[in-house]
Amino acid sequence: MARGPKKHLKRLAAPKHWMLDKLTGTWAPRPSAGPHKLRECLPLVVFLRNRLKYALTGKEVTSILMQRLVKVDGKVRTDSTYPAGLMDVISLEKTGEAFRLIYDVKGRFTIHRITAEEASYKLLKVKKVKLSAKGVPVIVTHDGRTVRYPDPMIKANDTVKFDLESGKISGFAKFESGNLAMITGGRNMGRVGVITHREKHPGGFDIVHVKDANERQFATRLTNVFVIGQGNKPWISLPKERGLKLTIAEERDRRRAQKA
Hints:
By secondary structure, the chain is mainly β. The protein is built from three helices and 21 strands. It has helices at 44-51, 58-66, 248-259, and strands at residues 9-10, 27-28, 41-43, 70-72, 75-76, 83-85, 89-92, 97-100, 102-103, 109-110, 121-131, 137-141, 146-148, 159-163, 168-173, 180-183, 192-199, 207-211, 217-221, 225-230, 233-234.
């Protein structure tokens, strides 16, 4: 048996949503250990080279990062395989751009430009609430943060608005019917809709029913639901499809209309 963690990743085994082609080599960048899981993240090298086209090779990406030009959530990152993930803010001060990593309706990370004002905060899903050493109440979030002394009303599955500058919670949205949510896993990944109700299954997976702006209903597991606003007002700007999934026929009609 091999000893220790794996250090390589074959291109064909890389997550499909990175959209790497098969024939440009054997290997893919293996994300470093970090706040997001290997299959739910986007390494900085893929974002800068394959998405933004700011570099042609991995070596060029390294030289950009080593000039300390790229910040993730307000912190300079120089590791080309740093795993950026959902809701992370990537800012490039030299070009004055900021991006939020967010899914499109096909379940892929899209290039979503945001304003400087919106780049000052991010949304975090609360994974658990617990007491740490010496009885300090903390929440643990989806990107591995531990935030001390949260509002006592905040519970697991809620969403908090986190100020990146101060490291403080500036607001929170409860996980409850009537709030807007984004789906972060499963067949409906990237869709946005209002939570209608939650089915509890003791010993099984709780199912959440969601209705989008086109009045289409769908259901998914509780773990895949990320609240992004109170009522039907999102706290973050959404990509151009606004989380509305079209059928194949509707997509075809839209393409034909654009050509005409």
